Amino acid sequence: MSTPFHEAEREPQVAPPRTVQSPVRYAVVGAGWISQAAFLPGVAQSGNSVVTALVTGDSAKATALARRYGIKHVHGYADYEQLLSAGEVDAIYLALPNDMHRQYALPALQRGIHVLLEKPMATSEADCEAMIDAARSGNAKLMIAYRLHFEPATLAAIELVRSGKLGRIRAFSAMFSQSVAPSNHRASHGYWAGPVSDMGVYPINAVRNLFGEEPVEVSACGVRDPDLPFNFDDTVSVTLRFADHRIAQFVVCYSGANIDQYRILGTKGDLEVSPGFTFGVGLRHHLTLDGSTQEQVFESTDQFGGELQYFSDCILNNREPEPNGEEGLADVRVLAAIERALESGQPQNLGPFQRQRRMEASQVRKLPPVPAPELVDAAEPSKG
């Protein structure tokens, strides 16, 4: 395997914007499960994007994927600097482990190469801020890959809350669980690869946008199954308190049956979204008003192709993406506070934070789902 590229520190300076023509040329950095199972299959139907380069340390994997998707340029991690300077790409899709995000995003952004970055944005607030600064100085777009910001059921839930049909919103709850194989890389890399960072970002992001507010206090409790090899709490319960007298709770788990759902309680009714966070299936609303429950099944969409289409549109039309670095930072500050709460056993106060933008209905994308591809030396979390 190639030696990973090490970040080069550069003096911040504002670069002129790059001229980009359609289709936007992407490099996929990291060819693991999420890139193979979800991102690469949806590129072709975006209509404004193409993958022209692939960065991976596995040459056999690179050869197979390059042949399947017609990718012209293949690089090892040691060649990353060369790729960024070669003029082969306009943007990168970065899907490496969370603690490597700054290392690979920063040099791209500093060169004016746009970055679509998998969530969570980073493993510290400082790293998030460094990437935001690099995007600003490099005149590059930085978008965090919140695929649900473009998913019809999610945006419909946001609009329902904003409409006032549920009355005053009082509480939010969520349960998100999966069984992660001990051999998976997530199983042995600590808190920032564990269930809170990996899965907790979904309910955190959901409630922040449903409430339209930022939490002011975090408390958490975790437990660890002694028969499992995880070096972190495999099941964690979190409570978020908001300044406007609302509360949110969620549980995330790496050792349970598959479930993903959330519920919003108002003074006039409630909405359960189940499934609520996954991809590859249609999400469902269970809306209860005046004691009567109605179910709405939303059509499955290609969530990854949709977010890519949106980001490329932002690049081509010089628009700031909504789930930008500020949105990523807003979640990471909560994740960091949960880590402190687990370590200390005490509630953690969050400093003031004002999000400048929120999700809008106009962001919805309805690309049709794509068939699941055969994976090359990669597996979903439950299988290794």
From TrEMBL:
Gene responsible for this protein: gfo
Superkingdom of origin organism: Bacteria
Protein name: Glucose--fructose oxidoreductase
EC class (word): oxidoreductase
Residue segments, region Disordered: 346-384
Keyword Oxidoreductase carried by entry: yes
Domain Gfo/Idh/MocA-like oxidoreductase N-terminal: start-end pairs: 24-145
Top-level taxonomy: Bacteria, Pseudomonadati, Pseudomonadota, Betaproteobacteria, Burkholderiales
Residue intervals of the GFO/IDH/MocA-like oxidoreductase domain: 156-271
Molecular-function annotations in GO: glucose-fructose oxidoreductase activity; nucleotide binding
PANTHER family on file: BILIVERDIN REDUCTASE A
E.C. code: 1.1.99.28
